[in-house]
Amino acid sequence: MPLRIPEKRRIWIHVALVTIMLVLGVVALNIGPLKSTWGEIWQVIRDRILFVAVDDRSWADPIIWNLRMPRIVMAMLVGAGLAVAGALMQGLFRNPLADPGLIGVSSGSAMGAVVSIIVLPYIGLTGDWLMYAATPICAMVGGVGITFLIYQLSRIGGRINVASMLLTGIAINAIGGALIGLAVTQIATAEQLQSFTFWSLGSLNGVLWPVVGITALVLLPCLVAALWLGKPLNAFLFGELEAYHLGVDVPKVKRIAIVVSALMVGVTVGFTGGIGFIGLVAPHIIRLSFGPDHRFLLPASALCGAILLLIADTLARTVAAPAELQIGILTSLIGGPFFLMLLLKSRKEMSI
Amino acid sequence: MSHFHQWIFLKSLLLVITLAPVVLLADAKPRIVTVGGAATEIVFALGGGDDVVAVDLSSTYPAKVRDLPQVGYIRNITPEGILSMRPDLIVATETLGPPAAKKMLKQMGAPMVWIPEPKSLAALENGLRTIGKKLGKSAKAEEIILEVRAKLAESADTAKQWSNKPTAVFFLAPPSSSGGGRAGGKDTRGAELIELAGGESVVDFSNFQVMSIESLIKTDPDVIFVGVSDGHGATPESVEAMRQLPGLAGIKAVKNNAIYAVPLDDLSFGPRLGDAVQRWNAHLAEVAK
Amino acid sequence: MLKADKVSFSYGRRTVVDQVTVAIEPGKVIALLGPNGAGKTSLFRLLSGSVAPESGTVTLDGKPLKDYSANTLAKRRAVLPQTSQLGFNFMVREVVEMGRLPHAKADKSTDEESVVELAMEWADIKHFADRHYMSLSGGERQRVQLARCLAQVWPGEKASGESTYLMLDEPTNNLDISHQHTCLREARRLADKGVGVACILHDFNLALAYADSCVVMFDGMVRAAGTVETALTAEVVGDVFGVNATLIEQDGQRVIATLLK
Q: Block means of pLDDT (10 residues each) for chain B, length 289 residues?
């Protein structure tokens, strides 16, 4: 592990990560089951920048602009959001293995998805709006809602007790899992069961610009808020009491970290389903490469997560083409062994 | 010139301008992508099979479609995957998913034909007519409809002569020594097929759910159908094992030796619906009086 | 002055701090002594403001602690915890820098880096400043934490002239005898520069050697308080700890020797 990173080098690392992300983003624009050329991509972008009339746009416009571009931007946003949420949870719980699942976002989102895919049709609500909008909204509401519930239940005398939050989370997750199982086995049709299964494996398939817009609207302010937490989270690593002694407003930081994580994970899981391991792997890569300073860790993890998910989604779009691979399968398939490797390596170095 | 051919013409014109080096215009055959088993079967039955360039994973009949490129599973279609097959026409059942991909395909104005979810005779007829019209094969579609109807009527006539309606249960996976099997409940295609064949489906839950051995003994159907295929569903071995289950020895279906393995394909509600109904009808006839 | 006035605190039905009055004065070292479970650490928590007293008040310069923000308070007092867990692998220097957290940006006059350097020098950890915290021994970690606390309330050239306080909860834990003395000598030197130091100790001889005054606690209450000479007598020690204690005086140095009763 390198020694302390001087301010200047930190800036350069960020610049490098941003460059990698943008270059990969542009490269990904030219990768897909449909063959395209750089000339066509340039033409599409130029047409869009110059507001060329719809009829005069190139044939490639809908493919580049409406199919690939939103997915690429979405992959970056979702990757950044999941990575930062992971880093926040790891800092807050002082556990490098923590992830937003601990605070109930994941199971809450899954419950929301089950409600939209299975329960709403069962009680007679159907329609187009349901298919496109209900799952994301329900998953988001479920994720944030369950987090809030766990958060409320684990307040002891006005303070949030981390240990009781984890235990409450386990209990709520168990109840949620049972309710999901009940809905899935008792009232789901085969089609709904398949829909839920595919949703739970995660995919950026079919992401439209409005979805990207809504996600950005929620994510970007959350990312900014998260960056503000860099310093206090450093103090948190010594323990909550120590953080207080160091002048950190502990309850406020906890509240912001939990709400911000729940929102970020809720909105991304809502639109793209369960995408695992980014929240664990991205902060770890940064931590192992550049140390655990949250002032650096949070923004660098965001960029690293964006890059990782962009790569994963480009693979998901292409490896099985013309079919689609679920991105959650890919991230877990690649992230799992990678994570194991990190663990084994760091165990040797007596540190995580 | 039908609307469809006009569309192909326009599209070809567009392709000449933009994709001239890539696409050989001489290849005037339309390229069709089908999504959904019933959609694929209908296109083939109408004689459009040679134009099909890609199918989804749920399309397994006729056998030659398995050699075609796969655009993924019907619930997980990616728009660019389909478009990359450069289709002139996409034929899909309404069950295509995820919803966002479906919406996207509709929004992008891709040349599509949607047919209803195949789970009834009406849906089949609707699908045949819709696709027939698009392919300019309406006459052939009507011919198939009449054929299916005739076969169904034949089965119905047979059933009319029975004094009782045989009761039946359809299993996707048969009960085994480790527990119950997945049975087709109300409003499933399994139950629909039993009714069409003149029997009475006696499963009182909805969807495909696990029916315990005890429930099966209590229901005591005259006939048990088990879906068999080499892909999923039961195997002949599992059906035989079911016959030997000690608890089931007393039920009518076992005593009458009325457990029938049926091709899982029978549930596709495609143009072969008539054959499927007749097959099931024949099985029911063996126990009916 | 950081002062607790008749404060009480209890966990459930057990009262751990009972009507205790104690003051940490700038420029003085006060030692807190007492057997395990006497309420020393709880009293520290009350004084540091991390818990609020059930009755009584804790004030800093006459103003109740609850009227200070966590950040303002942190600029005025640092607390060295008994044990410090740090799950992530920081460099020693980074840990010490953490002590400057409350001062970020507010105080440009102090050269942040030189404060960190000085604090590390004081705690005698400069030679492993670039090692990883997790690779250190318990005693070394303790000294790093001490340096962090020193950096937090470094007296420096405070424009405001506000007094600062250092609260050490068993700072000599895990330290070899030589570093125990160094640690308290540094605390003493800080006091001489105007910092108010409060220190929980188990070794009354260290208290006798370095502290100005002391409070001996027993069962949540103050058993004896005052200057070390008057309060820390063989009788008090024998009484509170249930041992036979003898005071030995030699060359002006006082030592209390104990034997099991």
A: 43 43 54 94 95 92 91 88 91 88 82 91 95 94 96 94 93 83 89 94 88 89 89 74 84 91 90 95 91
What are C148-183's pLDDT values in tens digits?
998 998 876 554 578 899 999 999 888 889 989 988
Give A292's contacts in chain C (Cβ within 8 Å).
88-90
Question: CATH number, domain at A230?
Answer: 1.10.3470.10
Range of the domain at A187: 7-348
What residue numbers bound the domain in which C7 lies?
A: 2-233
Residue C238: inside a domain: no
**Under an 8 A CB cutoff, do A234 and C98 touch?**
yes
**pLDDT in the model for residue B2:** 44
Residue C6's domain is classified under what CATH number?
A: 3.40.50.300
| A32 and B CB contact within 8 Å | yes
**Domain total in chain C:** 1
Can you give chain C as a three-state secondary structure string? CEEEEEEEEEECCEEEEEEEEEEECCCCEEEEECCCCCCHHHHHHHHHCCCCCCEEEEEECCEEHHHCCHHHHHHHEEEECCCCCCCCCCEHHHHHHHCCHHHCCCCCCCCHHHHHHHHHHHCCCHHHCCCEHHHCCHHHHHHHHHHHHHHHCCCCCCCCCCCCEEEEECCCCCCCHHHHHHHHHHHHHHHHCCCEEEEECCCHHHHHHHCCEEEEEECCEEEEEEEHHHHCCHHHHHHHHCEEEEEEEECCEEEEEEEEC
Asked if residue C249 is part of any domain, the answer here is: no
* Domains held by chain A: number: 1
Chain C environment of A247 (Cβ under 8 Å): 69-75, 101-102
- Residue A157 at interface with chain C, using a CB cutoff of 8 Å: no
Interchain contact A238–C (C-beta under 8 A): yes
ipTM reported for the complex, 2 dp: 0.87
Domains with residue ranges and CATH for chain B: 3-145 (3.40.50.1980), 162-287 (3.40.50.1980)
pLDDT of residue A346: 67
